[in-house]
Protein 1
Amino acid sequence: MSTLGTVSFYTLGCKLNYSETSAIGRQFTAAGYQEIDFGAGADIVVINTCSVTDFADRKCRNIVRRALGANAGAKIVVVGCYAQLKPAEIADIEGVDLVLGAAEKFRILEYIDGIATGAGKGMVRAGEVKEADTFISSFSFGDRTRSFLKVQDGCDYKCTFCTIPLARGQSRSSTVEQIVSDAEAIAARGVKEIVLTGVNIGDFGNGTSVIEGQRPRKEALFVDLARALDDVNGITRFRISSIEPNLCTDEVIDFVARSRRFAPHFHMPLQSGNNKQLAQMRRRYRRELYAERVAHIRQVMPHACIGVDLIVGFPGETEEDFLETYRFVQELDVSYFHVFTYSERANTPAAAMDGVVPLAERKRRNKMLSILSEKKKRAHYARHLGEVRPVLLEKSKEDGMLHGFTDNYVKVAFPAEDSWVNHLVEMKLGEIGEDGLVRAEVAEVTV
């Protein structure tokens, strides 16, 4: 196939975005384009954006400037959540040629000819988000050890701080059969670990199927999908990227505990340990349910890793409210936090709420929880020192040193050559190094 030109990609944000960038990249290569590294002088640069926070918006603008500086004369295409939410704002950035919304980004090749001639300068194609009503299969390649596989998209929840329903539309997912087929295609390329991604993956089974068109809601549950994936040969390990606590049922937890391939690793967004804030956020649980989920995981998988999302500085969060959250998560038997500083997002109910927390105070609270998170992570690591656990080895930035994660998400450093990459290695966990990683030695090797 003749090469039509070169294209490069830059992805901001979540694992879901990485899966979709790879899917878009495969469209370009199938059409005859050559993919090259970002900054290597491509003819077309595609930037897949995030818009979770104001910082994410600013980073997108910076990446556009970097793309123009490193790719003289390149056509710049911006897709993703920021492109859906603020297409005109992006089109006004000097150098941007094309902006595609949620319903248009997977039809990107239909618009390329228009900008290749210069006729499409500053062209915006971002329709109403309700038009994003189909599911498009996506999974990432490029990392020899790990692939991000999209199983669900969009969200029907109405959390007051969140723009994702505005950026991605209603909840929808593929069929179990299609996702199993995707997983088998990933396994055929030698990838050993798959991370299941989506906006609200526990809501799997809703919406429109890419194969069958409209179908009954909840034809299959997330646990049904997990059971089917557990039989996919060639994949060593599946991870669940994030799952809402109200959807992380005892059935899901018990399945993972018995599973052959699903890692004992849960990441459940809490957002606040204060029921007042949870109600104002319109979250679909209270902290008591979250504590029950953690307790059940610990009962059936004492060794599991449990990650937590938290938001600090939500409108109306007083110092006492924050300390209630702090004390709650301090007592929870969890392994680490992802702490987000609340950021006002246009067209969300929270942006109009009273009780705005000063930015400096938001940052202070973030730092307090981040320090506690580091202590939690170190305690999680220390709990498993001396054990033998499977580690999937991957490259690091340091020559002669590989990194990897155990099944329960302890990060390991191991001196070895690159030939060890993508091998599952039974390793005995030693001491925690000054870099915070666990030093390990080989116990037994399996390919």
Note: Confidence is low (pLDDT under 50) at residues 117-121, 207-216.
Protein 2
Amino acid sequence: MLNQMLGKYSYCVAPQRLTRVNIVSGAGGDWSMSYNAYEIQRSILASASALADMGSEWLQNPINPMSYTTFGPVIASGLEVFAHASAARGKPAFGLDETVVNGKTVAVREEIVVRKPFGQLKRFVREGVEGGPKLLIVAPMSGHFATLLRGTVERMLPTCDVYITDWRDAKLVPLDQGYFDLDDYVDYLIEFLHTIGPNTHMLAVCQPSVPCYSAACLMSEDKDPCRPLTLTMMGGPIDTREAPTEVNTVATQRPLSWFENNVVFRVPMLYPGSGRQVYAGFLQLTGFMAMNLGNHLVSHWQIFKHLVEGDEDSAEATKAFYDEYRSVCDMDAKFYLQTIETVFQKHQLPKGEMMHRGRRVDPGAITDIGILAIEGESDDISGLGQTKAALHIATNLPEAFKRYYMAESVGHYGIFNGRRWRELIAPVVDDWIVTHGSR
């Protein structure tokens, strides 16, 4: 339904991912009507999903004679694929209830350490386990929830005391809680590091590489005792002038005012954040899907085939991925626009021109933080060299505190999730943390 209402073919741009989608043009940045149109579509699809799910279950019920026919299971499989694809989704759970430490299975529980309007600091407490390197994993604020890094957290739990930034969906934050921009992001990170305490390691996945690096610069200049021991950045846009991808190119083809007037929505009245200007998660998801539409169609065809063949495990594995992939959240427009300008258009951090509340962010201030830059050879979001630039601009950091790792044949998502992350990349991170275990 929404696609039938869309009038203008344009570009969807996010701090991490940029691609073309169909959108409705707005007047003066007031996009509440298109957000309402999306909500209408979402409600209709949720109802259709429920009906399709009931139909699928009935067609597979042993008391239904159609379940014994040739076409009954085929239709049921098709309905199940549709029901899953069109179902409404909220924030997923991490679901990490246990881990293995030194060969022993221990229980894991989540603990909220700090609550802020736009995010919280979450800790994965390993019951009965004391000590271990403290690791702050900084999740991207780019349209997905922190649970996108479930595999990242799971792999680091056996060796580290893991914390993560759990960002909040901006449409759920009332206007009286203020706004959130790139400066606030940096402030949150510094506060979280102070809460965790000295000798903490920090790991940034993609988009947060810039604010993490900025926090490291500011804290180093202040000789802050809580500055991180190490900063690992994976697929981060430190300098998008290096090997620019399509993602980077699109961000430079329009002035900032174009993004403000064409991809910023107002949250409708049914949400607590009514009236807040946001870059909407559903628009981001449309961009995600459009960028590799063929692959997504093939994946859903595979789900259908697995269901028809009775291979429930394979079907569930793909469905689990899409449960996470389609769970998206809104970003405050101030953060979104400031990131577009600072990171993608003006390249202020690598130029030494980035400011934080009137103060220059100086990469030369970093002198004793171990910086590990990790890139994927096949990354189509952050090109080779964009993360490595973090090592070059840290002009006063000794070479012993710098390391670069390029993961062969690994794409953007594979840097922090999947077999190659677990078996090839994570051991490099483990080694870097152990090497710089104290200051």
Note: Residues 2-92+252-325 form one domain.
Protein 3
Amino acid sequence: MPTQDILSKANQDNISVSGISFDTRRLVKDNIFFAIPGSKDNGLNYIKAAITKGASAIVVPYTFKKNFIKEIPIYKVRKIRNVLSETSFKFYTNNVRYKIAVTGTNGKTSVAFFINFLLSAFKKKSATIGTLGSSAGRVSRDNLTTPDPVTLAKEMKLLDSKNIDYAIIEASSHGLHQKRFSSLKFDLSILTNISHDHLDYHKNISHYISSKLDLFKLYTHHKGKSLINCDTKHFKKIKSSLNKYKINYNLLSNSSKKYGIKNIIIKKNITIVDVFIKSKLYKFKFKDFPIFQIKNFILAAVGLSLIGFDEKKMTRFSIKCPHVTGRMELAGKKKNGARVYIDFAHTPDALKNVLLEAKLICKGQLVVLFGCGGNRDKKKRPIMGNIAERFADIGIVTDDNPRDENADKIRQEILKNSQKLINLKNRRTAIKKSISLLKCEDILIIAGKGHEKYQIIKDKRLPFDDLKIAKSFLTR
């Protein structure tokens, strides 16, 4: 029978434990080392290195056959990723009272940001953990959307030490599938949408959806609240799966008079939105806000209403809400009035949404600059090329984060079915060229990297900031 409670077993064996690790580069003396077989690397190959660095015990999958380890104890477990998460949260304990999770293809960062803003407006101590890093701790924006369980457990412990009461965590499909949340139970869980992304990892949309829905099936507290945006692709699959597992959930829908947007009125730079929450109509106002972000804000507001926050007060907060970094963020204007925006859109749906949004305010030509990341879902490349061609007047294809792939080849795959897209290697040169093309009242969307401050080429992260570079060309 495999040992599951690693810390109890270590205590029985009188083993000193200074921490938990699954990466020998970060392992220190007396860490328990989890040797996890991964998709890119195999932790079993680093057992000897872990022993050399002073690991106090090794945890391996139950199927591990070799018996060459004599120096220190070895514990065999089933579902090693679950056990890593459970052990991490048991060692790095926290007493954060309320936990909120947001999952979905697009909008996770924005919804988490808006929940954090609203909680702050209610004078609650809260923090986000996700794509933009940790708003009150150590996790940087260079980390994964959902940190590994050791990092996440440490971060939650740090938030607790700062008396944070609400932790809002972005739950990626990778993080959910890899059981990084095994010890957490959320008080509020939100699904923003589902569309094409990460099929290089999940292989098909069914597996991708299933991984997302694990948030509601496995990690939402039995007394917790769940909110699903049903105005999304694949909703029939989502509904069928949730009903199969008898999950209680609330729906936000444009057609609903219980939770839904009744109408949107735009008056110059002010947008007025009438929203049904618990079947009662509320009026929200926003200043200089894109429609897709307003919908994300409403998702955040409805979510908080489910756990007891006052809807009327939230209507007073909306007009003061700041913009999310790298999400339809205004970089600046040319002297002729043309505007340049930075956006993180890196999926087909996100690119389409930001272009449709820009069309609402664009009186001249709409220009988009974008690329696709290397070592990622290749199927979306020609789809994004097609979207740029359909919804923009001028489309410029350039390099994103090519990683280990040939950047020229990535661009050719985007251009596969295009007739008018412009192919420009070197992202800096492409930004300069696209800004030079802008005439009076044109709009440029620089898409794909948003808040990122780097470009990944081979195994190097080189300094690169779309916002900073765009501003430098706008001031010349």
Note: The chain has 16 helices and 22 strands.
Protein 4
Amino acid sequence: MLTTLTLLTLAAQAAPTPQFHKDIVPILQARCQSCHRPGEAAPFSMLTYKDTRPWAKAMKAAVAARKMPPWFADSATGHFRNNPTLPQKEIDTLSQWADNGAPEGNPADAPKPLAFTNGWNIGQPDAVFEMPTAFEVPAKGSVDYQWIVIPTGFKEDKWLEAVEVRPGDRSVVHHVIAFYRRPGSKWLADAPPGVPVPKASNSSETGMSDGSIGGYVPGLPPRALGKGRALLLPANSDLVLQLHYTASGKAAKDQTKVGIIFAKQAPKERHIGIAVGNGKFVIPPGDPNYRVDGEITLGADLRVLDFTPHMHLRGKSYEYTAIFPDGREEKLLSVPKYDFNWQLTYELAEERVLPKGTRIHATAYFDNSPNNPFNPDPKAEVRFGDQTWDEMMVGFFSVAVPPDFNLRNLIQQAPPKPPATGAGGR
């Protein structure tokens, strides 16, 4: 009599070997090709069999270890609609394909190729703003952050439903933030349009810019809002790009551009970005588990959409917790193993309306020890700063509000209290 184990073994042996065009391409289209194609963040393309075949064993290892697609949220906390984690069935299919020599199969079995619009993930933009001249990045050494003012020329308010920031050379662009400033602002008032202005490490856009419309960092998708939501870009505003370049060992040139798509109808809700964080910390040399806390209080009932934690190379973990007016606490997002190389946004599967008076508390841990392989200098005392050898503790999140919402009501001024920085967690 055949045992259950024997039957399962025979069934596995009888199962057909996965073929690239029939079995693998649908997985790549759903999970991988948005990044793994020419001009995007991934180091190689997965659009064709020829491109993909050399990476078969590496793909198996990455998906089996769940390193790819990148995702760092604790599954026990919250549910997120953009979670790209592969189901076990797809991991098994990719593994079996690699183990059996990565056969190509019949090209006729492949699904229709995905359509990508001239490199833009948002589709063809209605307007594109590009740095007028390329910025030259040296092969070695540090490069100051740069500000570049780009006038929009818009004479009336514009509602934006999608924004994409595209670097000209991703190998040297660490990140870009597209801020905007209203007419009459004193911020960079003397900066010639299109000419890079070095940004001092201790200078800030806080209180100077009027907000941002988008940005670029590896792992961060373009901003496409939908659902009757849009960003407001006030009339006669200028864009101000904050650009962070890192030398790659080879001299390069970058000419970043910003593409936007206008809302076709008046929006029902305005998309707003908020941040909770702490810039007043000092991480001691060698500390493997240094805690930093930050908190803000919501000034109105706000519909929360997503979370984007941000730290640098010593970042270890990050959490958001809601403390409701009645004292109840609920963890909203936990990222137990933060990865600086993938600055992900975690989009709530079910958007939450948090009541006025809710405190959004953020807790981050940093590893400044020699055991952190990414640590630039375990002997350094580390403070808040722009460069990657400095640190940041910022928890961005997005909310949706009525189009005529008074932004002064977003956040309540919290009463003074003793700083929590460095407390506990040792």
Note: The chain has three domains: 15-109, 127-267, 271-412.
